[in-house]
C-alpha cells in the first residue's frame, strides 16, 4: 500500500470513527491494527 497511502487511509478511517489499536513492525514491514466503530479489528499494511 505504501506509507503515504497507509497514513491517508488511517486518517480517512479515524475520521469515520475507527480507532488505532497498535502499530507493529517486523524488519522492513509495518502494520497498523485498527478497530471499526463496532469493535471489529483489522490490519492495514
UniProtKB/TrEMBL annotation:
Classification via InterPro entries: Glyas_Bleomycin-R_OHBP_Dase, Glyoxalase_6
Protein origin, superkingdom: Bacteria
Record region (Disordered): 17-45
Pfam families per UniProt: Glyoxalase_6
SUPFAM superfamilies: Glyoxalase/Bleomycin resistance protein/Dihydroxybiphenyl dioxygenase (SSF54593)
Domain annotation Glyoxalase-like: ranges: 3-44
This protein's name: Glyoxalase-like domain-containing protein
Species annotation: Planosporangium flavigriseum
Amino acid at each position: 500500500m505504501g506509507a503515504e497511502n497507509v497514513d491517508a487511509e488511517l486518517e480517512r478511517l479515524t475520521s469515520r470513527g475507527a480507532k488505532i489499536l497498535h502499530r507493529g513492525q517486523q524488519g522492513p514491514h509495518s502494520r497498523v491494527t485498527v478497530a471499526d466503530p463496532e469493535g471489529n479489528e483489522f490490519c492495514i499494511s
